[in-house]
Amino acid sequence: MKRVSIQTADFDAAAELAALEALGGGGVASFTGIVRGEGGLTALELEHYPAMTLPQVQRIADEAMARWPLLGLRVIHRVGPLEPGARIVFVGTASRHRTAALESCAYLIDWLKSHAPFWKKEHFTDGAARWVEARPEDEEKARGWTR
Amino acid sequence: MATLTLVYFAWVREAIGLDEERIERPASGTTIADLVAALASRGGGYAEALSDSSRLRAALDQRFVPFDDPIGEARELALFPPVTGG
């Protein structure tokens, strides 16, 4: 099972985990990203490149399926305006082996952060807004998987 | 005449004031860096967004590519800041 979704709607992380557990592999790993409400943040806006996002995330998912013995892989990435506390992203992997589940989950989130065409803009209570800058250490983490 | 669609995202889009535009496709040996320099020379928001290519990334026909790649027969060039998803 490999499923990738780019959507504005929220998702049910528990239902996604249950679907991965039902594959019977014995091991499920997951990561859920949540909007932090620090520094007077009122909204996080996620922009993306619609023609590229889904194919690019599919490629990253295919890489993970090729690299680890996975029974299932689920990626959900939200776009549009999100409030503090809202879920942004879900990555779940199922395998017979814990190392495969944990490593592939980390690989997927690291590559989504630095190789999928999403951009975040922060809006604050005082009306200010700023685009989030890419962090060199995120790129470094993703590159770490190629070594 | 072949056209090239330019698409912009995040602060590149905001500075230029357009989501996308169509231009005549440059000669196939033209690199992305060459075209970006030509666009920056339009001045105004183009200069603001595109003068410093170290702050930019590019995708040609929905594939990430380095700035020294030629545009070739591509139909779409996207210009944007480094991505910040996840």
From TrEMBL, chain A:
It catalyses: 2 [molybdopterin-synthase sulfur-carrier protein]-C-terminal-Gly-aminoethanethioate + cyclic pyranopterin phosphate + H2O = molybdopterin + 2 [molybdopterin-synthase sulfur-carrier protein]-C-terminal Gly-Gly + 2 H(+). GO terms for molecular function: molybdopterin synthase activity. Its EC number is 2.8.1.12. Pathway: Cofactor biosynthesis; molybdopterin biosynthesis. Converts molybdopterin precursor Z into molybdopterin. This requires the incorporation of two sulfur atoms into precursor Z to generate a dithiolene group. The sulfur is provided by MoaD. Heterotetramer of 2 MoaD subunits and 2 MoaE subunits. Also stable as homodimer. The enzyme changes between these two forms during catalysis. Pfam families: MoaE (PF02391). It is an enzyme of class 2 (transferase). This is Molybdopterin synthase catalytic subunit. It comes from Sphingobium wenxiniae (strain DSM 21828 / CGMCC 1.7748 / JZ-1). InterPro entries: MoaE_sf (IPR036563), Mopterin_biosynth_MoaE (IPR003448). Gene3D superfamilies: Molybdopterin biosynthesis MoaE subunit. Keywords: Molybdenum cofactor biosynthesis. Belongs to the MoaE family.
UniProtKB/TrEMBL annotation, chain B:
Transmembrane segments: none annotated. It holds the Pfam family ThiS. InterPro entries: Beta-grasp_dom_sf, Mopterin_synth/thiamin_S_b, ThiS/MoaD-like. It comes from the Bacteria. This is Molybdopterin synthase subunit MoaD.
